[in-house]
Amino acid sequence: MTENIDSTNAELTPEPQTKKRRTKLLIGLGAIVTASALSTAAYWVFYGSHFVSTDNAYAAVEIAQITPSISGTIEEVFVTDTQSVKKNDLLVVIDPKDAKIALAQAEAELGRATRRVKAFVANDTGLTAQVAAREAEEKSAVAKLSSAQADYDRAKIDLTRREALKASGSVSGDEITRAQNAFESAKANLTAARAAVAQATANRSATLGSKEANAVLIAGVNEENNPEVALARARLEQAQLDLERTMIRAPIAGVVAKRQVQLGQRVQAGMPLMTIVPVQNMHVDANFKEVQLEKVRVGQPATIYADIYGDTVVYHGKVQGISGGSGAAFSAIPAQNATGNWIKVVQRLPVRISLDPAELEKNPLKVGLSMSVKIDTRNH
To answer: For 291, which DSSP code?
Structure first.
């Protein structure tokens, strides 16, 4: 009986070697866990905490909107959607007939204005001579007035003397009649002389006014920079510019998108015709959470991946700028945070990331493609 009990206890009691093995395994597992935790913490403290990343990022670029500067009918269209164009490539031609007619009219108006100004200059010399002639006429009229005044005074004296002698019979009636006639004639001549002086004075003033008015048109300028000629020349330049604008060229190099213009279409100034996307100038708009931006600064390097290429293509860029406000601040219907039912939501700020042109040329991007961005903030 006693032997059986001892045998059972021996079987239930673990061997010392097994206990040791288990203890070592637990210690080893604890060491591995501790080492992993320490390495993870060290990685985060010394490396991982210096990077911020987001997959809320998209390829973007400043597109060029192609619009006409003048109205007209589309005569030719040289491009289609997805077509690559270079700067100054011809895109669209507007029928130039109206612009050519307007240019011819402006050229004729410039010629007429030039001739008119030359006539003003020539008139100035003629009017100067006329003023001198009118002054001479006025002096002559004044002299005649003096002579008529003297004749009038003498005739008046003669008539007075003869009328005084009439009662005594010393003069005949015929002589008195002649004296009266001479007096009336002298009086009429005096009135005419006064009118002639007034007319001569008026003629001189009118001629002098014409000269002054003509002088204002040419004062301080020559024929080339006269305001009338300058206005006609400006209209000519505008007509030339309008003719040039019948040929619409690409302002930048890129890819044609959203072409809406058709042959024969009547377009108005400012009407959208197409868009040019400069894919060579692509950048990335990365929307980071506000809590990620504490150490983000302009100029910091960034690593970018495009979903279209996956992890096989890596883009290298730099932080170019941080938006002045969150997306919610610039939304069409901003959040009403002043109401009682307010819930705090972590906001995102757009961060602009520039891309390497050589990498873009090798692996082109399109507007709106999804991107993943990681920024190195160690040099903040």
So the answer is: G
Where are the domains positioned within the chain? 64-95+245-276, 99-241
Helix (H, G, I), strand (E, B) or coil at 28: helix
Q: Residue 281, SS3?
A: helix
Distance of CA 326 to the CA centre of its chain: 29
DSSP string, 142-178: HHHHHHHHHHHHHHHHHHHHHHHHHTTT-S-HHHHHH
In angstroms, rounded to a whole number, what is the distance separating the alpha carbons of residues 204 and 210?
10
CB distance 147 to 193 below 8 Å: yes
Whether the pTM exceeds 0.70: the reply is no
CATH topology for 99-241? Helix Hairpins (1.10.287)
Pinpoint the alpha helices (H) of the chain: 2-12, 16-46, 97-166, 173-218, 227-244, 357-362
Length in residues, the chain: 380
DSSP type of residue 324: S
Backbone angles phi, psi at 125, to 5 degrees: -65, -45
Q: Using CB atoms within 10 A of its CB, is residue 116 exposed (0-12), middle (13-18) or buried (19+)?
A: middle
Q: What is the pLDDT of residues 178-211, one digit of tens each?
A: 878 888 888 888 888 889 888 888 888 887 787 7
Q: By the 8 A CB rule, do 371 and 304 touch?
A: yes
Contact 304, 316 (CB under 8 A): yes
Q: Are 254 and 366 in contact (CB under 8 A)?
A: no
Distances (CA, A) of 309 to 78, 306, 312, 315, 369: 32, 6, 6, 11, 10
Residue 59 CA, distance from chain mean position: 28
Domain spanning 64-95+245-276: which CATH class is it, in words? Answer: mainly beta
Weakly modelled stretches of the chain, pLDDT under 50: 1-2, 5-10, 12
Nearest by Cα to 252 from 365, 368, 59, 84: 84
